[in-house]
Amino acid sequence: MPASVGALYEELRVAASLAVRFHAALAAHAGVNITDVSCLGALDKNGPMSPGELADHTGLSRGGAITAVVDRLEKAGFVQRRRDERDRRRVVVELLREGAYARLTETFDALDRSYTEVIADYPEEQRQLLLEFTRRINAQLEERTGALQSGA
Which of 126, 99, 108 lies closest to 25, judged by CA? Predict the structure, then answer.
């Protein structure tokens, strides 16, 4: 294996480890746990959804685990449960963008700005290559995660 392949793999491993540490520190700073931060991210990206859908997006069980997360986030002022406007029998979890979540957003925005600065340093052709590389790595992670979750 060429040295550059090993070096790239090592840097990806370090980046993954640092991302986990960042999210853990962010969760501790917000007074929640890392699973809660993952759920907040899913709600931020996808909008209001049922607890079951939130469980599916985050890999949590549809039973007690997701209920406990939503309870914690609601108590901490990050989310609210409400009736779905289209189907009043259905409950959805909605992110409250003011208050507690706004403080988390400030931290993420600062990280986003620093990422944007680094990415902007590369010419467009190299950014396209990095984008393709990242998508392929993410696809591998998604595939391996699915295999582990299905017991394969």
Answer: 108
Distance CA 28, CA 20 (A): 12
Write out pLDDT tens, residues 55-64. Answer: 999 988 888 8
Nearest to residue 79, comparing CAs of 134, 122, 40? Answer: 40
> Which residues have a Cβ under 8 Å from the Cβ of 95 and sit 6 or more positions away?
40, 43, 44, 47, 48, 78, 79, 101
* Reported pTM: 0.78
Cβ(62)–Cβ(55) below 8 Å: yes
Domains and CATH numbers, the chain: 3-121 (1.10.10.10)
The pLDDT tens digits for 20-69 are 999 999 899 888 899 999 999 999 999 999 999 999 999 888 888 899 99
Give the DSSP per-residue string, 71-111: HHHHHTTSEEEEE-SS-TT-EEEEE--STHHHHHHHHHHHH
Amino acid at 80: Q
